[in-house]
Amino acid sequence: MRSIDIKSRFGDYQVKFHQDILSIKEEVKSSIVIVDYNVYKLYEDSFDKNVILFDAVEQNKTLEGAQHIFRELIKRGVKSNGKVFVVGGGVLQDVAGFACSTYCRGIEYHLVPTTLLAQADSCIGGKTSINFESVKNILGTFYPPKQIHIATEFLKTLTESDYLSGMGEIIKFNLLKGSISSVSKESDISNLILDGLSYKASIIQIDEFDKNERKFLNFGHTFGHALESTSNYQITHGTSVLFGILIANKVSNLLGLLSIEKEIEYFNLIYPYISHQQIELNWFNFDKLFKVIKHDKKNTGVINMVLLTDTEPQIKPIESEDTLKFAVNNIYEAVRLRNKVS
Length: 342
What we know:
The chain is of the alpha/beta class.
């Protein structure tokens, strides 16, 4: 069985790769399980009856959503030495992880990620978060799980949109480490997940609390998170990150950091993974996007963006709103025209 060991100041933890869902069923047997309602409908036979169902949509990633989990844990008599399994995608991981980190000042939890995005990215790193008063991820903790259990068999029931969303974060990792040519729709998915997690682990073990090197993992997220908001989450997270990467690459080109040849090469590599997404002009309204960005928790008064260059990624403060606005409008038009031709 393949595994990755991750060092953390909260206690080391491990990612275990399972051959199938059946072997995970043995892990969760007789435990309290917080499970995404849609996952439960698909895999009901994999769980005992002691489950806490959660409608894992972005609109429930709130204090009210966390309160639902608190009430259920109290109802089941879970104490400070309790243990739960969290089975679902990134939204459930965020809100359930937040709940577990604060319930009884922190209880042990294990993650069973069921989406590609969760398996390849968000399951490690220890970040939990909820939204508050329309500000995304503004409340949260660092609190990693005890173990993570991955079975790629879960991916067979994903929609194409959710699958491509996960590919967004995988592409991000490979762009940052300069190996994008190794990613294709024909690649073995378990290897892509393992490579992505290994790369992310190498970063978070250096900078667990997002002070220095880990900030590079925000590549594409400045405008990505904003597009999630302006589209009312009609664009999935990973796909919005890819749009954010295209915008960042245009900014980098405008600043003379990335050649037009490289920008075009990356656009052509990314486009097949966003071509399924219908876009609307108002989602790319710069004033709306900029308003969201200014309220983002990572904004310290200056818009800092992770930018690819012809050599290595950099984090640069962007002072010109005109540069940002031009990049947003340019990418919107480029994608719209490519969609029209396709």
